[in-house]
Amino acid sequence: VQLQASGGGLVQAGDSLRLACRVTGRTFNHYTMGWVRQAPGKERDFVAAITATYGDTHYADSVKGRFTISRDDAKNILYLQMNRLNPEDTAVYYCAAATYGSNFYIPNEYTYWGPGTQVTVSS
User: Fold this and answer.
1) How far is CA 97 from CA 31, 70, 104, in A?
2) How many CB atoms lie within 10 A of CB 55?
3) What single string gives the DSSP state of each residue in 2-39?
4) What span, in angstroms and rounded, lies between the C-alpha atoms of 85 and 24?
5) For residue 23, which of 6, 47, 4 has the smallest C-alpha distance?
6) How, if at all, do strands 77-82 and 91-98 pair?
7) Of 118 and 1, the one with more pLDDT
8) Distance in angstroms (rounded) separating the CA atoms of residues 52 and 29
9) Per-residue pLDDT band at 37 (split at 50, 70, 90)
10) Binning pLDDT at 50, 70 and 90, where does residue 28 land?
11) Sign of CA dihedral 39, 21, 97, 112
12) Which 8-state DSSP code applies to residue 60?
């Protein structure tokens, strides 16, 4: 499975961004898809996930109500709509795929990773 994220950039606090992750190589809808971020000097943190079968969504408390994860199984694209961004959201954002039964809240449980896209939010 190959993943390629895009859509990052430099924005101001309060702005919005939409990240996209194109997935190739295997059947997209077999995996729970997630977004994980890593801020400078910190470990990778779970951001959001969407399950394969029913499309259930799950969010970190820090982004709940501001971020929305979605998937287009026909196009093999995962999205992360980020609204009301703040400087604490500054990080490299990775899209990742987890197999069935994985604990998608734990970054190390994801099997496949893309190279990440930088999101920088200025105050």
Assistant:
1) 6, 14, 9
2) 13
3) EEEEE--EEEETT--EEEEEEEESS-GGGSEEEEEEE-
4) 29
5) 4
6) unpaired
7) 118
8) 5
9) very high
10) confident
11) negative
12) -
